[in-house]
Amino acid sequence: MDTVTTSQAHPALLGTPEGERVRCGLCPNACLIAEGKLGVCGARGVVGGELRALTYGLVSSLAADPIEKKPVFHYRPGTSVMSAGSVGCSMRCGHCQNWQISRADEDAPTRFVPPEMLVALALDAGCEGVAFTYNEPVIWLEYVRDTAREARSVGLFTVMVTNGYVTEAGLDLFAEVIDVWRTDVKAFSEEAQRTLCRVGHAEAVRAAAERAMHVHGMHVECVTNIVPTINDADSELAAIAEWIAGSLSPDTPWHVSRFVPYLEFSHLPPTPLATLERAVELGHSAGLHHVYLGNVATETGEDTRCPSCGATAVSRTGFSARVLGVDELGRCSRCGADLNVRMSNRKDRPA
After folding, report:
1. 254 with 293: CB under 8 angstroms?
2. 318 in helix, strand or coil?
3. What's the rounded Cα separation, in Å, for the pair 119 and 299?
4. Nearest to 91 by CA among 232, 180, 195
C-alpha cells in the first residue's frame, strides 16, 4: 500500500514543502511525498499538505527482554529492557526475519500504547530500560522521543536497535533522550549495502554512529550479520573492523552474527563457523578489544575479557550474563583497565 488510509496522524518532524509535495528529511531516502501518499518506510506520509507520523503510538510487538538479546553487551549487563516495535522500515533487507512488521504499514495489526503506558509497563515488569526495536525505530521518531523522555524521567535508560540509516538532523533529534545506539553495520562497500538492503549510502550509517558517539556521547555497539557471498570477504570484514577501531574506538563492541537463510536470500547457506571465527581474527587484527560471536552456540565467544590482563569480566550463556569482574566505573576489577562497560545510567557528553 502506498497511500494514507489512517484518520489518526501525528505531526511529524523534518518535513520541508517542495511545491505540492513534502520532502522528509529523516533518513537518506529523502522521500518527496505527494498528498495522501507514503514514504518508502510506510510510516510517514503527507496529510493536508503536512508530513505526518502515521504510526505514532502503534505498537506491534512488546516484550521484556534481557539487554543481551539486542545484542548490547557493554551497557548495564544482566539487566532487562521493555522492547517495543511498530511497523515499517527504511530499508528492504532480503534476509529480514521481522519482515511481517518491517514490510507492513499503519494498517497492520497494532495496539495504541501511549508513552506513559509503555513506561508504566516497563516499571511493572521490573525493567531498567526501554528499547526501541523489532522494526526500524528511526522512522518512529516522534513516539521514540516522547517515550524515551518519559522513561528517562523515571530513571530508565533508553536503547535504539537500529539500522543506523538516519540523517544528521534526524540523529540530533534523538540525541537528548537516547543512551545506547546499537547499530547494524550491514556492509562497508556500497555494492554490498545495496545488495543486502536495496538502499545505498553505507557511509551515512557510519557517519551516524560516529556522531552518536563523539558528538552526542551515546554508548555505541555494532552488529554485522555475515551473509555468504555478499559481505563475507576478508576485505569487507576487515574494512568494517578497521573503521570501528579507527573512527569509533578500539573498545567499541563488534558483534559478528550468523546469517540464517530467509526470504530473498533463502538460497544461500548459513554462515560457516569458520567465517565467523575469521571475522573475530580480523577484528582483533584491526585493534578491536571486544569482538563477539552471535547466533551461534559458543562456550566463550560472548564473554567479555579484559584486553589487558585477560580476566573474564562478564560471562554469558545464551541471553544470561554474570558480571564477574567489573567495578562501578566499568573497569576490570583485577587490573583496573577500562572495559568500556557502563554499569550505571551515566551518559558522557563532550564538554
Report:
1. no
2. coil
3. 35
4. 195
How many beta carbons lie within 10 A of that of residue 172, not counting itself? 14
Cell of 94: 532480503
Which SS3 state, helix, strand or coil, does residue 147 take?
helix
Is the CATH number 3.30.460.30 carried by domain 58-301? no
Q: Are the beta carbons of 269 and 219 closer than 8 angstroms?
A: no
Strand ranges for the chain from DSSP E: 10-11, 15-18, 21-24, 32-33, 44-47, 50-53, 58-59, 61-66, 80-85, 111-112, 129-132, 157-162, 180-184, 219-226, 254-258, 291-294, 304-305, 312-317, 320-323
CA distance 306 to 303: 10
Q: What is the pLDDT of residues 115-151, one digit of tens each?
A: 999 999 999 999 999 999 999 999 999 999 999 999 9
Residue intervals of the chain classified under CATH 3.20.20.70 are: 58-301
What is the DSSP-derived secondary structure letter of residue 75?
Answer: B
CA 215 – CA 236 distance, rounded (Å): 27
- Other C-beta atoms within 10 Å of 270: how many? 14
Q: What is the pLDDT of residues 95-106, one digit of tens each?
A: 998 999 999 866
Average pLDDT over residues 293-319: 95
State the residue for C-alpha cell 548459513.
270
**Residue 282 phi, psi dihedral angles, 5° rounding:** -65, -40
